[in-house]
């Protein structure tokens, strides 16, 4: 889902590791995005793969457009886990 005119409020530190299941290495950052609508200021926290982030010039205070993917899983405990991933992000021109 594409969103426009989002403001980058915070860019998290790079997190890295190795999957216990596949053995593949992973790296990502958490990014806090905000936008305004009739209800006021809204926020969403999303993760972005390090490779996708490395190709961008995104920093705190940037206004961006982003494609977000939403994933929800039902855990064995019955709890629900939501995940928001940034698929593509570009600074507004």
Describe what you observe in this structure.
Strand 2 and strand 3 (25-37) form a beta hairpin. The protein contains one helix and six strands, in the order ββββαββ. The protein has one domain (2-91): Nucleic acid-binding proteins (OB fold (Dihydrolipoamide Acetyltransferase, E2P)), CATH 2.40.50.140. The longest helix has 5 residues, at 50-54. The model has no long low-confidence stretch (mean pLDDT 92). It has 93 residues and is mainly beta. 13% of the residues are buried. The protein has a five-stranded mixed barrel.
Name of the CATH class: Mainly Beta
Low-confidence stretches: none
> How much helicity do the residues have?
under 10%
The ordered H/E elements are: EEEEHEE
**Beta-strand residue percentage:** over 45%
**Biggest sheet, strands in spatial order?**
1-3-4-6-5
Mean pLDDT, to the nearest integer, reads 92
What structural category arises from helix and sheet content?
mainly beta
Name the shape in a single word: globular
* The CATH homology group name: Nucleic acid-binding proteins
CATH fold category name: OB fold (Dihydrolipoamide Acetyltransferase, E2P)
Strand elements, count: 6
**What is the count of distinct domains?**
1
The major sheet is characterized as: 5 strands, mixed, barrel
Using only CA atoms, what is the Rg?
15 Å
CATH architecture descriptor text: Beta Barrel
Taking the alpha carbons of the first and last residues, their distance comes to 20 Å
Number of helices: 1
């Amino acid at each position: 889902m594409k969103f426009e005119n989002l403001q980058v409020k915070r860019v998290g530190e790079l997190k890295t590791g190795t999957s216990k299941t596949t053995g593949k290495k992973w790296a990502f950052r958490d990014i806090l995005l905000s936008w305004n609508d009739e209800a006021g200021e809204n926020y969403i926290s999303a993760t972005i793969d390090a490779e996708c982030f490395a190709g961008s010039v995104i920093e705190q205070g940037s206004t961006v457009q982003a494609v977000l993917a939403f994933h929800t899983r039902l855990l064995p405990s019955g709890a629900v886990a939501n995940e928001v991933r940034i698929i593509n992000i570009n600074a507004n021109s």
